[in-house]
Amino acid sequence: MTVTPAWRSPCRPGGLDFAAMVGPDRDAPPPKVFVAYTHDSLQHKADVLTLAALLMRNGVETELDQWAEGQPQDWGVWAHEHITGSDYTIIVASPQCKIAGDGGGLATENRGARAEMAVIRDLVQRDRATWRPKLLTVVLPGRGVEEIPDFLQPYAVDHYKIGELTTQGIEDLLRVIFKQPRTLRPSLGRPPVFSQLNPSLPVAAPLAAEPTWHVLPDEAEVVWRTGVESLAKTWKRQWPATLEVHLVPVGDARIPVSQLRSVEANLPVYAHAQGVLDVSSGVDKTSTPDVVMVSSQEPYSSGGGGMALLRNGQRSAWMRLREARLGSVLIREDAVSNIKTMLTALVQLNPALSANVVPVVGIDPVLFVRRGDLSDLTSNSASISMFNRSALRLRADEYLAAAELTGMTEQVAVELAERLLAEFPEPGR
Fold first, then answer.
1. Per-residue pLDDT tens over the stretch 64-111
2. Are residues 141 and 230 in the same domain?
3. Domain count, the chain
4. CATH value at residue 39
5. Are residues 144 and 242 in the same domain?
6. Its pTM surpasses 0.90
7. CA–CA separation, 169 vs 187, rounded Å?
8. Run of H or E including 336
């Protein structure tokens, strides 16, 4: 299987910082990799050196024979030590590599490579379940899958075809080494509960189609987006009109810092997969003892958005409203869709929700926002209600059972959207 990288190049302005976004725990030791290859030509040797340097630059501790030539070596012992002591062995495909790996050619040729391949074959034969996943076959630019030794199963097991020797070009290889897949498996939901008929009993009334809202004696304390940014101690950016959704726990729901840290590495990928945040325009990822947050570096781009998990148990998400020629437009269908998207992402985010939560929405800034429809996006005129405040924030005085929020997310999204729309005069009035 050939995997083709599709993300923008990291480590450049506007690009995606791979290490900062989906990298492993900063305190964890770096993964170790040994590079096995044959010296087919000076160009091939130089390409392998470039590959090894790229791995080192991206946080992978790499062993290469070209870096061990400064003193006498027992190369057989050296190779055996690094093959058995590394997390992965990268085998670089080439014509001579295939000959050595398949046991062809003269015994006097490629003696070092033959010894390495013999060690690798023996380890796989001894314990295939342990050693086969440690072997990563790489096909460099200009090389082909047919140059992979047969015992490495070139057509049945994944190999990594590199189109260019850049960080972007080896992204899929880095993802495997750091165990960071492109797509995260969603959390397992609860099984649905269906009504059942018993012929001996009267037919029961249908289940309620709407969630039950409960009034709090006092309004819940919400940390709105600007407050989340303050907790995150991040650079204060100017945002266009942005729709916020927050789930505030009822009662004490403090999260241990260790759990907060466990969310940090995968939060950008999770927010992107859920449709809350477009990582292609670059993201800021921030972690403090009080909050883990990921947010767009360029809020005015099409991907403006963000997510956060607070230590007090609150979880938050935000997405920008549609911009028109004049100001921004709050469209009912968009509001329902975006609120549902954010609620779904927040509900499924680990750790599990508190038993009861307060869903609340707002818009910040709200000064040049009007209620409308798709035709207003291209209109050259607009009637904008001037609010006497910079942000619109609905009251946080009603809560839902987490089970109802999970099972009736769309109904909750519709209700919150209608409450928000009610703050604006209908178009034409």
1. 999 988 788 888 899 999 999 999 999 999 999 999 998 887 777 778
2. no
3. 2
4. 3.40.50.11530
5. no
6. no
7. 31
8. helix 332-348
